[in-house]
Design brief:
Two copies of one chain form a homodimer. The first copy, chain A, is an alpha/beta fold. Chain A folds into two domains: 199 residues, Isopropylmalate Dehydrogenase (3-Layer(aba) Sandwich), CATH 3.40.718.10; 133 residues, Isopropylmalate Dehydrogenase (3-Layer(aba) Sandwich). Helices cover 41% and strands 22% of the residues of chain A. A ten-stranded mixed sheet of chain A has the order 2-1-3-12-11-4-5-10-8-9, sandwiched between helices. A two-stranded antiparallel sheet of chain A has the order 6-7. In chain A, strands 13-14 form a two-stranded parallel ribbon. In chain A, β8, α8 and β9 form a beta-alpha-beta unit. Chain A is globular. The two termini of chain A are 23 Å apart. The interface between A and B is large, with 70 and 70 residues. β7 of chain A pairs antiparallel with β7 of chain B. The structure holds 3-isopropylmalic acid (2 copies). One 3-isopropylmalic acid (IPM) sits at the interface of chains A and B.
Chain lengths: 352, 352
């Protein structure tokens, strides 16, 4: 198989971790006889510094022309504390989501048995948790009209029927191949957008009678994820609710540094660790490269249909963890101190 | 002291639990020589059935004329699964918040040592957690203009400067009397409303140099609450984010049935358990009356300035828990089966 992959490292620890995702791809290419070619492009704070734009045209063009994108992270504290900044790194990420039509963000929340104790949740609550989130990614209050005057500010939360329908279909298709349960999360007791959301999901549900559907209010979902995460199989939700719930769930899994996500639409797929740019540890060889490596596994599986190759990556990670190796973020009091590795050493261990 | 209290039981388990809140108020009146008078009014599904409106005019008038309101819960599954319903129980709650100008919802997340094990979180993560949420309650996407066409639906997320300022002041005043740390939660990297929010909070912060301010994105806050709930003191946030985060936090505390909230503004205060109408257990003498009783403690403290009386209620609850008594929702495998009580028996125990 011949594939062209665009690497967008972005800000903070982006470059350090993406290096290892790319190295694993190269190794998979060699081992299984695929020809992976690579290019690079700028996004986020780095892109603003170099070109003035968080998403240079060249980046979007290269993205469209590639078969898949491996992304690192964007963000910089400099903009966060300046509410009046007009240009922000995050606009790059939002721009590429919109530009490539990446309307579905898939985030598998999976547990590594070896890391059960890394969570704040009790192991007996956690054990057996396996959730696949479908977060809508190109609509909602993220992209609705924004207004600002001296005394007010507003963002329009808006959904179109087709936007809800296309992601609902993707989520139901996935549920069918998994636990056959789908929980759609909204706030239909208050929001008009949620009432449309619920209406459309109810319609799509009829086409999947083999999948059990539940509708849950977002406040309740935020609770249930803590109380009994095992009860969820596929969770389908809107952009803003998905932003909050997937991050909550990743922390529940206790392994933020171990989780990857795939953003897909009708064109090129986009794969990224769920952790952010973490400037506080950038350049210190401390970041956990496993989420970037797992992003590559998602890419192989989802964009290229290479399940065996994807599995070999997950097995390599499992083995590394079983041998007791950890990066700082997933180490606990039982970890053998000599087995706490930096980014580079952990990347190499998995490659072996 | 002479005070007139309006009791609005609402739907589901509302009536059962509110009975005990009221009984405790009566007892406090007798013991401390206060004259509490009571009236009742309808809201929610019950009100719709009786009058066609979720918030009859009479209820709002009585509410305005009272010194404080003790509320139960509203909601009914009948409306939840019908996205086209025009009249909904929740409109009663939203209407009274707006009608009374209850712009600040205070939700203390406190732990009862006896119940440390009731949470899904590990006791060592939880121990020492003590958070006071300030959720804005009369603005945001809850009250902005809603539109609906065949193919789209929208809700306007909107904030005015004065709305952010007045709740920020309340939160800073409270922080000053507590741990002197305030975390303001927003999504300023994406939302214009959040950028206004952050701007105003930054301005108000200058007037409270003795309080340490942190700004956090809502997705990160949803994570940090699971990862390290102890790190929060006062949390200040908008209506929608507050809805999600306070419910998440209450589950973290593991004692949903034990938490109360106060909604305040410039007039009459409104006190309620944070649990909902729980129709599945309504009328079965199973509901936990402690949150309603704790709502009364909040009322005494916040609306009437009766701290000693409030403390005597908390002490009575502490004592009941220390003696091993539990309702079903807060019982665990260590609970002596003979000490698992129904609503009535638990209410009586606390009265004793
Ligand atoms: C960086 C930010 C714009 C982004 C979002 O809110 O979508 C991030 O939090 C995410 O979840 O990918
Ligand atoms: C019932 C509903 C409208 C309400 C809200 O979303 O505010 C409830 O969830 C709450 O938190 O009080």
């Amino acid at each position: 198989m011949k594939k062209h992959i665009l690497v967008i490292s972005g800000d903070g620890i982006g470059a350090e971790v993406t290096t290892w995702g790319k190295a694993v791809l190269e190794q998979i290419g060699k081992t299984y006889g695929h020809e992976f070619t690579f290019d690079e492009a700028l996004m986020g704070h780095e892109a603003i510094e170099a070109t003035g734009s968080p998403l240079p045209d060249e980046t979007l063009e290269k993205a469209k022309a590639s078969d898949a994108i491996l992304f690192g992270a964007v963000g910089h504290a400099k903009y966060d504390n300046d509410p009046s900044a007009k240009v922000r790194p995050e606009q790059g990420l939002l721009g590429i989501r919109k530009g490539l039509g990446l309307y579905a963000n898939l985030r598998p929340i999976m547990l590594f048995d070896e890391l059960l104790n890394a969570s704040s949740l009790k192991p007996e609550i956690l054990k057996g948790t396996n959730i696949l989130f479908f977060r809508e990614l190109t609509g909602d209050v993220y992209f609705g009209e924004k207004k600002r005057s001296a005394d007010t500010a507003s963002d329009l939360m808006i959904y179109h029927r087709y936007e809800v329908e296309r992601i609902a279909i993707k989520a139901y298709e996935a549920a069918r191949l998994r636990g056959k349960r789908l929980c759609s999360v909204d706030k239909a007791n208050v929001l008009e957008t949620s009432r449309l959301w619920r209406e459309v999901v109810q319609e799509v549900a009829k086409r999947y009678p083999d999948v059990e559907t539940e509708h849950m209010f977002v406040d309740n979902a935020a609770m249930q994820l803590v109380k009994n995460p095992k009860k969820f199989d596929v969770v389908l939700t809107a952009n803003l609710f998905g932003d909050i719930l997937t991050d909550e769930a990743s922390q529940i899994a206790g392994s933020m540094g171990m989780l990857a996500s795939a953003s897909i639409g009708d064109g090129t797929g986009f794969f990224e660790p769920i952790h952010g740019s973490a400037h506080d540890i950038a350049g210190q060889d401390k970041a956990n490269p496993l989420a970037s490596i797992l992003s590559v596994a998602l890419m192989l599986e989802i964009s290229f249909g290479l399940s065996e190759e994807a599995k070999s990556i997950k097995d390599a990670i499992d083995k590394t963890l079983k041998e007791g190796y950890r990066t700082g973020d997933i180490a606990d009091s039982n970890t053998d101190k000599s087995k706490i590795l930096g980014t580079t050493a952990m990347g190499k261990k998995v490659l072996e």
